[in-house]
Amino acid sequence: MKGLKLLTAALLISAASYAQQADIKPAAPGVTYGKTINKDKAISLSALNKKLSHDTVYNGKISGKVTEVCKKKGCFMKLKQDNGEDIMVRFTDYAYFMPQNIVGKNVIVEGKASVSETPVERLRHYAKDAGKSSQEIAKINKPKKDVTIMADGVLVTE
Question: What is the CATH number of the domain that holds 24?
Answer without folding.
Answer: 2.40.50
